[in-house]
Amino acid sequence: MDYTIRTMKRDEYPLLNDFLYEAIYIPEGTDPPLKSIIKSPEMQVYTYDFGNSKHDKALVAEVEEKIIGAVWVRIMKDYGHIDDESPSLAISVYKEYRGLGIGTALLKEMLLLLKAEGYSKASLSVQKENYAVKMYEKVGFIVFEENEEEYIMVAYLS
User: Fold this and answer.
1) Complete edge-to-edge strand list for the sheet that includes strand 57-63
2) What distances in angstroms separate CA 29 from CA 18, 93, 123, one per listed residue?
3) What DSSP state is assigned to residue 7?
4) DSSP state, 86?
5) pLDDT tens-digit profile of 24-53?
6) Cα–Cα distance measured from residue 6 to residue 95, given in angstroms and rounded to the nearest whole number
7) Which of 40, 56, 93, 114 could bridge 119 with an S-S bond, Cβ 3.0-4.6 Å?
8) Dist CA 33 CA 62 (whole Å)
């Protein structure tokens, strides 16, 4: 599949709310939460006022001029927070485009961007049973910390 990865434009930032919802891991046999869940304070930390900090960065994957995936980072007190210098990462690709390497390509591109901008590491939080754990490991994330349900993973960029 032909796709392009590029920097997300400011007028596209509202799409991050859609991708935030898509990023929610839903275990098999579980009903998806209501879309309004993204309005909760613990979810809004990922998207509220995005673009107004120098640490806010977003890339998108596009197929035939349609945005089908996004990866974004910011320094925030989210589930994957490890310190105040390391951006936390969120990523999502629409279901029909998953399993094609697009998420991996988005991740690799974001890690290159962060390294070029002088960050030493990036973090994320992921449910232990989420198939994406393998993708994160493939691009260099390692388990930094864990609890019963989640891993906090870190990619060292140096």
Assistant:
1) 4-7, 57-63, 66-74, 88-93, 121-127, 150-156, 142-146
2) 22, 21, 29
3) E
4) S
5) 999 889 999 999 999 999 999 999 999 999
6) 20
7) 114
8) 26
- Integer Cα distance of 69 and 121 in angstroms: 22
Q: Are 114 and 81 in contact (CB under 8 A)?
A: no
The residue-averaged pLDDT of 80-86 equals 95
**Token digits of residue 79:** 């589930």
**Half-sphere exposure (CA, 13 Å, Cβ side) for 112?**
10
In the chain, what are the domains? 4-156 (3.40.630.30)
pTM score of the predicted model: 0.95
- DSSP-assigned beta bridge partners for residue 93: 69
Amino acid found at 145: E
Cα gap 24→7, rounded to integer Å: 23
Per DSSP, what are the bridge partners of residue 60? 6, 70
* DSSP class of 24: S
SS3 118: coil
**Alpha-helical segments (H) within the chain:** 15-22, 41-44, 102-116, 132-138
